[in-house]
Write a structure and sequence with these properties.
This protein is an alpha/beta fold. The protein has 12 helices and 9 strands. This is 3-oxoadipate enol-lactonase.
């Protein structure tokens, strides 16, 4: 019961994890983005921990999960999540992933549907359309460190009005990005650079919610639409006045959509899947 945390060896990596909320409740597993740690989900934990057992973990090479030498793929990161679910005996879980977390969440759902009750894909993609854009960021991280990447990342992550009106919140995120180990950033960025998994989306049978930010230039609405149309029965929600990190910039709206989806997903096994994707804006 309550909060517990630790580090668990999963798929050859040591993953830091934390659990919040009462035992015996449905489990939500949150997976973070590139250049972040599990604290990216603080607003969701605060809103949902009374009703769910919430498990967060730091992607390898991020937060308190150490960097592991060698190249990484999205499948490697999916295997980390699968191992965490199995070793902590969590499954089946409601999986919520943002950006990189959504990418590996797609792979988990395609490979191990038995481990998931539902899948929420926030501000993510199934294909890297311009892999060459990643090379300068990778080389900067490896040669100079994270400092030059912080401000450009914040500009992609949040709209200008949010950055101006929420300086303390943005400063917290600024420190989180800056604290990302450069080798961890580079390894996971290489995994994103090689992302090619649109073809696996048709294999996903888990009830799925796709969330997009209207002003997200990194993973635009059109990309979210592509994912939602490829996954049978997926629901698409477009959140207004949000860029790439919708769970922070529009936390209340994100939490509302997530809560409604989780309630519907709980009934899925008895009512059956929807016939096709639906779209909504908020």
């Amino acid at each position: 019961m309550g909060t517990s945390e630790g580090i668990l060896r999963c798929n050859g990596a040591d993953l830091a994890y934390r659990m919040d909320g009462p035992a015996g409740r449905p489990i939500l597993l949150f997976s973070n983005s590139l250049a972040s740690d599990m604290s990216i989900w603080d607003d969701q934990v605060a809103a949902l921990k009374s009703d769910y057992r919430i498990v967060r973990y730091d992607t390898r090479g991020h937060g308190r999960s150490p960097v592991v030498d060698g190249p990484l793929t999205i499948d490697d990161l999916a295997s980390d999540a699968i191992a965490l679910i199995e070793q902590l005996a969590l499954g089946p879980v409601h999986f919520v992933g943002i950006s990189l977390g959504g990418m590996l969440g797609q792979a988990v759902a395609a490979r191990r549907p038995d481990l998931l009750r539902s899948l929420t894909l926030s501000n993510t993609s199934s294909e890297t359309d311009k892999p060459e854009l990643w090379e300068p960021r990778i080389q900067t991280a490896l040669t100079t460190g994270m400092a030059p990447l912080v401000e450009p990342t914040l500009e992609r992550w949040f709209t200008a009005p949010f950055r101006a009106s929420q300086p303390q919140r943005v400063e917290t995120v600024r420190r989180m990005i800056a604290a990302t180990p450069p080798k961890g950033y580079a390894a996971c960025a290489r995994a994103i650079q090689g992302l090619r998994q649109t073809a696996i989306l048709a294999r996903i049978v888990t009830p799925t919610l796709v969330i997009a930010g209207r002003e997200d230039a990194s993973t635009p609405v059109a990309v979210a639409e592509r994912i939602a149309h490829a996954i049978k029965g997926a629901k698409l929600v477009v959140v207004e006045q949000a860029a790439h990190i919708t769970p922070i910039e529009q936390a209340d709206k994100f939490n509302q959509h997530l809560r409604h989806f989780l309630a519907a997903a709980a009934k899925h096994s008895s009512s059956g899947a929807a016939s096709g994707p639906a779209a909504a804006s908020s």
